[in-house]
Amino acid sequence: MDSFIVTIDGPAGSGKSTIAKMIAKKYNFTYLDTGAMYRMIALYVIRHNIDLENKKEIEEMLKNVKLDIQGNTFYLNGEDVSEAIRTPEVSKIVSPVAAIKEVRVKLVDMQREISFGKRIILDGRDMGTTVFPKADVKIFLIASPEIRAKRRLKEYDEKGIAATYEEVLESIKERDYIDSTRKESPLVKAQDAHEIDSSKLNIDDVLKEISAYIDKKIGE
Ligand code: CDP
Ligand code: CDP
User: Fold this and answer.
1) Which of 3, 70, 74 lies closest to 35, judged by CA?
2) Distance from the CA of 14 to the center of ligand 2, in angstroms?
3) Which amino acids bring their CB within 6 angstroms of ligand 2?
4) Is 128 annotated as belonging to a binding site?
5) What angle do the packed helices 88-98 and 101-115 form, to 10 degrees?
6) Could you tell me if the CB of 126 is within 6 A of ligand 1?
7) Which residue is closest in CA terms to ligand 1's atom 8?
């Protein structure tokens, strides 16, 4: 079967990974959560106290990290860190880590390698702009910061992670700012991406709209 690439970009909490998993199941695509890859590097940075200003330390770190992704399970140097990468501490540091050029070069190479020849859906920030500028389908998913903070807070509550609405909103706004203004592959809508605002849509509505768009593209 021919390769087919669907990209979903957008800010934190807009619903990318939820929708991407549903699309993957519906169309039998592979799913790759590229944010989780940046989160694994961020976790390593925290654990090893890496100085983000020190290029030598960054290069050394990138030689030492081995990322292994098996579906929705993420291994950092052999350890399952699927839960550990979702904490507010990791969320706080991940954007500065993801702004480092050397980090992006390594992860973008991996993302292209993993996707080669596959029917795949990837979510992130720069999938439709930098990583796969010729993707078959590009979605840009947005929602207001307040709605996104409420959604993320609900997830933290369910997992028993302590956080206030104000803290989560602040963290989301800070991440939006860093991700959108960084020099390397900032979060921007690709010109040919289909934009959906999920602020007032439930997951099923978003799924329906994206499915219809994919079906149209498959038919072209
Ligand atoms: O799930 P959430 O939207 O909170 O974030 P994520 O997708 O797990 O991504 C975490 C962070 O990784 C983002 O805030 C970006 O700084 C970075 N990221 C990136 O720079 N490029 C990507 N393709 C994916 C994530
Ligand atoms: O991957 P990203 O950070 O963009 O968002 P997510 O983790 O897929 O979604 C964040 C939360 O919002 C999840 O708990 C979703 O169930 C929820 N969500 C929602 O309530 N309504 C939507 N239309 C999309 C997501």
Assistant:
1) 74
2) 6
3) 10, 12-18, 151, 155, 198, 201-203, 206
4) no
5) 100
6) yes
7) 35
**Residue appearing with tokens 């960054």:** 58
Residue-level pLDDT at 219 = 86
The CA distance from 86 to 127, in Å, is 21
CA distances 73 to 31, 61, 78, 157, 200, Å, are 12, 22, 11, 22, 31
Ramachandran bin of 78, using left for φ above 0, alpha for ψ from -120 to 50, beta for the remaining angles: left
Q: For 80-100, how does the pLDDT look when each residue is reduced to its tens digit (9 = 90+)?
A: 999 999 998 999 999 999 999
Nearest CA to ligand 2 atom 3: 13
Kindly give, in sequence order, each residue whose CB lies less than 8 Å from that of residue 44, ignoring residues fewer than 6 positions away: 50, 61, 65, 76
Whether residue 11 is annotated as binding a ligand: the answer is: yes
> What's the domain count of the chain?
1
Ligand 1 pocket residue status of 175, Cβ below 6 Å: yes
1: pLDDT strictly greater than 80: no
- CATH of residue 116's domain is 3.40.50.300
Type of residue numbered 201: L
Q: Write out the residue range of the structural domain in which residue 128 sits.
A: 4-219
